């Protein structure tokens, strides 16, 4: 969650996410060079995407990712590919990669941290180059203009809680504000085409083409681990509510198409180059520690209800559970907390749904002036409760929760509402980021002993295995490099 929020939805109707589930399809013909129109379109969306995904990550790791990305782009056959592509490493804690028209390619640092060699990095970026080369974004654009894409979180809200209705869809759009999910998904056929093109580019560049299947396997394992750690039974919905629900379904296909091809992986080079990279939440955007969210810059903290899990987006923190959904964010504040609450309801309702609280009440929460209101909305054969809790932190700064739950069950969020508080400067100073620490296995080191150094309270061994693509029967060898996640400085 960045330091400023608005109620406006991002203009991302024609943007396109990658690494989603796929089935099959034929490889498109050789691509024409990037046109001026495509370059202009990408340039328009580029700053929006940087803002939505935490901006660019700075440092030598970003330069390395850019270099690998441009090298693999050359294999696409696009004219003047190296200079025509813009490759960005994003300062985001979600596992994501995507592309937009005009040769703009993106990967988050979190996804890069999940990789274990340069061939995997080249494979993911090659997959994105494939989307650009095949003009997948343009082919999906008309469909996006006809139907607004809500994203996975919106589907969960409107389906599980609200039902399939206009009210559910409208409110879901409100809850999606700033959630990093307002981007168009590629078709399954297009995803497989991009996988195939990525494998082709890997082979041409001299990389091991099997890297495409291994990185997809790591993503599938991470999705499953996230579900396990958060107490979710359905691992097909990742912790970050991505549009990449089932990479496991593509692993076998990618491996079959790679065949027995050989090539370089540059494992040690890759691990050396990403050493020290930020992992997980950036404290400047707030951090999630267990069921607690802490923002050292905004000086606030709250605790999610038992059984719920949180996702820290650039503009909002989402709180997800079986009995309801919520977001914590902020909006323009003029010093009137009552009008602030009403403005949140208006924003949640959107243009087609007039939404207002039955009343706005005042109280105090841990010394913070607080205003709250609720509305019960008819939704076909059922009803839902919308609740907004707002807190004044200063004369020009307020934060709020917006929650949605089946009628009569909004009290689930009462402990969370009461937990919002201002933290001290010493508490803020105590927040230390996690970073990737690449170490060389010594004689006597075991998975258990190295896992004990992971900067987590739970799931240390499981996190270590997934991070290093180690199966349940894999063992360590003295001299090999592995990744740890440790506290930085």
TrEMBL record:
UniProt keyword list: Hydrolase, Metal-binding, Metalloprotease, Protease, Signal, Zinc
> Hey, what's the signal peptide range on this chain?
1-23
Per the record, the domain of life is Bacteria
Which biological processes are named by the entry's GO terms?
Answer: proteolysis involved in protein catabolic process
Q: Which GO terms describe its cellular component?
A: membrane
Q: For the LysM domain, which residue ranges apply?
A: 437-484
Task: Decide whether keyword Cell membrane is in the record.
Answer: no
Question: What InterPro entries has UniProt attached to this entry?
Answer: LysM, LysM_dom_sf, Mito/Outer_Membr_Metalloprot, Peptidase_M48
Q: Name one GO molecular function term.
A: metalloendopeptidase activity
Pfam families per the UniProt record, alphabetical: LysM (PF01476), Peptidase_M48 (PF01435)
Q: Answer whether the UniProt record assigns the keyword Repeat to this protein.
A: no
Q: What is this protein called?
A: M48 family metalloprotease
Q: What is the originating organism of this protein? A: Pontixanthobacter aquaemixtae
């Amino acid at each position: 969650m960045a330091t400023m929020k608005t109620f406006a939805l991002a203009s991302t109707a024609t943007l396109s996410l990658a690494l989603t589930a796929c089935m099959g399809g034929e490889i498109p013909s050789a691509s024409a060079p990037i046109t001026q129109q495509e370059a202009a379109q990408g340039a328009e969306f580029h700053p929006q995407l940087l803002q939505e995904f935490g901006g660019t990550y700075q440092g030598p790791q970003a330069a390395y990712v850019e270099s690998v990305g441009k090298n693999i782009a050359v294999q696409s056959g696009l004219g003047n590919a190296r200079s025509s592509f813009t490759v960005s490493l994003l300062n985001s804690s979600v596992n994501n990669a995507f592309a937009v028209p005009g040769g703009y390619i993106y990967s988050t640092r979190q996804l890069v941290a999940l990789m274990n060699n340069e061939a995997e990095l080249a494979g993911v970026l090659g997959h994105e180059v494939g989307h650009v080369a095949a003009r997948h974004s343009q082919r999906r654009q008309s469909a996006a203009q006809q139907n607004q894409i809500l994203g996975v979180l919106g589907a969960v809200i409107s389906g599980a809680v609200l039902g399939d209705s206009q009210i559910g869809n409208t409110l879901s759009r409100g809850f999606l504000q700033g959630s990093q999910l307002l981007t168009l998904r590629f078709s399954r056929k297009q995803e497989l085409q991009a996988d195939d093109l990525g494998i082709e580019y890997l082979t041409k560049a001299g990389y091991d083409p099997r890297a495409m299947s291994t990185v997809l396997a790591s993503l599938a394992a991470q999705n499953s681990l996230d579900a396990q750690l958060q107490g979710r039974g359905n691992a097909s919905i990742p912790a970050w509510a991505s549009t990449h629900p089932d990479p496991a379904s593509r692993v076998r296909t990618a491996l079959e198409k790679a065949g027995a091809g050989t090539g370089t992986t540059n494992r040690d080079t890759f691990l050396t180059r990403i050493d020290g990279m930020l992992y997980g939440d950036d404290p400047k955007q707030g951090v999630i520690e267990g069921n607690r969210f802490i923002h050292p810059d905004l000086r606030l903290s709250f605790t999610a209800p038992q059984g719920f899990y949180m996702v820290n987006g650039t503009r909002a923190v989402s709180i997800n559970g079986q009995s309801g959904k919520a977001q914590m964010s902020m909006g323009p504040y003029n010093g009137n907390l009552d009008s602030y609450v009403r403005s949140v309801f208006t924003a949640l309702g959107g243009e087609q749904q007039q939404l207002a609280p039955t009343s706005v009440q005042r109280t105090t929460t841990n010394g913070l002036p607080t205003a709250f209101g609720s509305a019960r909305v008819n939704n076909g054969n059922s009803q839902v409760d919308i609740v907004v809790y707002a807190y004044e932190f200063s004369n020009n700064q307020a934060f709020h929760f917006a929650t949605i739950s089946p009628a009569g069950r909004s009290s689930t969020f009462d402990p969370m509402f009461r937990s919002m508080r201002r933290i001290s400067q010493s508490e803020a100073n105590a927040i230390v980021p996690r970073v990737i620490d690449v170490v060389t296995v010594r004689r006597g080191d075991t998975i258990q002993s190295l896992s004990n150094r992971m900067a987590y309270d739970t799931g240390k061994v499981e996190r270590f295995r997934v991070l290093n693509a180690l199966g349940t029967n894999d063992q360590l060898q003295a001299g090999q490099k592995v990744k740890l996640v440790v506290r930085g400085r």
